[in-house]
Structure formats: structure tokens, C-alpha cells
Input
Amino acid sequence: MNRLTYLAAITAVVVSCGKKEVEDRLGNLDFSRPAAIGGNFIAGYADGALYGKAQMNSIPVLLYENISTYGGASINVPYMTAQEDDGIGVNLKYWESGFQTRSRLGDRTDCEGVVSLGPVKSLYATTSFSDFTNFSQFDGTYQCVPYMSTMDMWNPDFGAASNTRVPYYHRFSSNPGIATSAQDLIDANSTFVTVWLGMEDIYNYAINGGEESQIPSKADFKVNMVSLLDGITANGAKGVIANIPSIDHFPYFNLIPYNGANVDQAQADEINGLYQLSGMTHINFEPGPNGFITYDADAPNGIRQLVQGERLLLTAPLDSMKCYLYGLLVEYVNERYALTLDEVSEIHTATIAYNEVIAELAETYDFALFDANDFFARVGDGIKWNGADFDLEFVSGGFLSLDGLHPNQKGHELLTNGIIRAINAHYNTLIPTINCGSCDGVLFP
Output
């Protein structure tokens, strides 16, 4: 064999092996028309808003762009454009404004004049944004809509102009006001679908102190999920489904201590004296940490102190607590800023019940199951990836964004790798994990 013939033979073998390796990585899965459906976590919602770069580094984009290297296609995303950098976020303090920009780390001055580094955002004076209008290149495969519950995905009015609180769906809809997110996805006839639903059914209740909605029953959740999965698997589609992490993992529900009212003996005596004069002897402060006072219709005089196991939310007015006796004397902690023991129990019970349904449906429809609850527990204990440490500490942990709830872009990278491992384990594929050099963590000024 002459030298040129030998080299040609070697090249043919290398090319052939390379082609076979690419084909073998995806096994029998078809990624020619990938799709995704879910709420905040899968949409790339981060830092309290939906904005361009977080969408570009969201789970479906990272997952399917990686897989497209080995066959298949990437996913068509209705990116924010006019508000690409600042984004548009739902202001959970809706009495201040409907929407807000994303948060960034910056200098903040508190009520005592102390300047410190923390999340800084701006409020929008308008509820009208061009990024809420229909996306002209819509193809139905991307139904990752912030705040969308399983009830919402079957509701044609979700995201309608009359619902200015959460109008994102019109960006994704084939026919705003008539189409539904679930039916749009079914009609897209996708070959592989990433599903992360159910979080908003529970978390839309949890993030507002149990004041804004009710958690759908386990039975209702299952009916909505079965209707969706029946539709998207009718033509043989495969997929991966994620379950729901516990609220115990997130600083949004755990950063502010329920007993953060620290007083000395003189302050305790003064506060107790004032309540005793009003006949409210059940309010009792001692030197050191004490539970803040909240409203409770079932308590004497309609107020009581928070107890261990109850949660103050990150939306609580910290400046007012620090300087203006909020939660002590002048005004009590509003129910929307706290979760009672009963509400915490309801949330935990629903999370367990929904996760049972999700595990059952994954088996029924032959979907890979990504155990997001276990994943967040492991990150909470601390993990290492690419030489960097990650945990769920607020700001410093490297995984969560500045809203204390949603992952940042590095978090999206790690979640995507968890989903890839779940797909590989279930379908015996060999999809490589990703190393996202463009994914931001928390950016310091």
C-alpha cells in the first residue's frame, strides 16, 4: 500500500468511527424537533426577571444546542429584545408597580445610612412592553412561560391583556386569547420534550405567603399532566420530566429568621409593658432573639408572634423592620410576607404528592426522571464542578441568582447536566455534559 492510499484508508476509518460515535451517543432518540414546557426554572427566569442572556443560557437552550452537535436541532426561543438587558420581572410587591428590572449587585443605603453591596433593581412605571407581543417566528416547541401552572397551560386567557400581572404567554402563543400553551406544544408534534411543570402550582402560592392563590389538588395536577403527556406522546415522542424541589432549599424562604427581633432586657421590658397595658399578655419578649409579630385572626386580639418552623419571605420590608419597629409595635408582619406552620405543611404535603405523580407519570410514559429535589439537596450540601464550589447560599453560593429563588446561569448549566445524566441513565444514551463558558454566575461590580 503506497503512502497516499494508506493515509486515505486511515482517514476513512477515523471519519467512519467519528460518525458512528455521534450516532451512538443519541441511541434511538430522535431530537429532530425538540421542545420544552414549564415555568420559571426552565424559562431562564433569574434575578427576579426574564432577560436575554439568561434565556440564552436557559436549560432548553443549553440542552438542545449541546445535543444538536450530535444530531437533531436546537430550539426556537422567543427572546426578549427591547428589554433584553434589563429584562421584565413580575414585581411580587405589586402594589408598588406591576413590573421590575432584573436585579444586579450594587451599593444600597439602608435606613441607618449604612452602605452595603446587595441586589439593586428598578421599578417600571408601565405595564406595556413590546416584548409581551406575539413572537412572529413562533413554532410551538418552546412553551417555557414564567409563572405558568398546570392549570394556566390549559387556559387561553393566561397572559391576556386583562391579566397584566403575568402576561408572558402572549410572547409564545400561536393565537393569543384563543390558543393554550399545552395545545400549542401538542400541535408542534415534537420528537423529544423536556417537561418541568408543577412548581408554579405550588410556588405561586408559596412566594406570596399563601395569599394569592390556592394549591391545586394532587388529582387536578395529575389530570392536567396526563392530558398534556397523552397529547405529546401520541406520535411516539420521548422526553424527560423533572420533579419539584422543596422550599427548604431556597434563601427566599429561609434567609430571614422568624425570630430576628433581637432586643435587650430594657427593650423587652418596654415592649412587654406596652402590650400588657393593652391587655395582650400573650405577647412576650425576652432578651435575645424573638419572633416577630404577625396578624392571625385566630389569635387573641388578632395578633401573635411567629414561631419556629414559620417562614419570613425575602420580600419582607427589612428596612422597616430594622428602623421603624415593623413587626414589633407600629405595624405587624403582613400575611403576604410570611408562611404559617399550616401553610408550610400544606406546601410540603403538596410537593411530596406532586412528586409521587411525576414519578408515576415518568414510568407510565417511559420518560426519564430528573430528581430535582434530590439535586437541590446535594447542591445545598455543597458540590464542586469544574474546580469551582457551589452551594445554595444567597449571593455567595454561586448557584442561585439575586432573587434568592431562581438559579443563575451557572445554576442552569449544572441543572442541564443533571438532566443530561437522567436522560443517559434512562435511555442508555451517551450525551456529554456541558461546560458553559458563557454562563454567568453572580456578577460583582
